[in-house]
Design goal:
Blueprint: H1 9-46, H2 54-68
Helix pairs in contact: 1-2
């Protein structure tokens, strides 16, 4: 059962592109939801000295994911 052979190349490309766009959109939404606790915690810890807004918290969350995220595929 190989459905890919019956599908034209342009239809496969559009299907792949729409799937990738959906994954990126869902990841961005989840990242924005997780940025809110980061903002609250940062503003609680640093108080009036260093306040950050929502987009700065999202950028901080992305940066922490890049710096401390799991690299590789997990196989040894």
């Amino acid at each position: 059962m190989n459905l890919g052979k019956d599908m034209p190349i342009l239809a496969r490309f559009v299907d792949l592109a729409s799937t990738m766009l959906l994954v990126i959109a869902i990841s961005a939404i989840i990242g924005l939801i997780l940025a809110w606790p980061v903002q609250l915690l940062w503003n609680f810890v640093f108080g009036e000295l260093y306040r950050i807004n929502f987009l700065q918290a999202w950028a901080l969350n992305v940066l922490a994911g890049i710096l401390f995220g799991k690299a590789g595929n997990g196989k040894k």
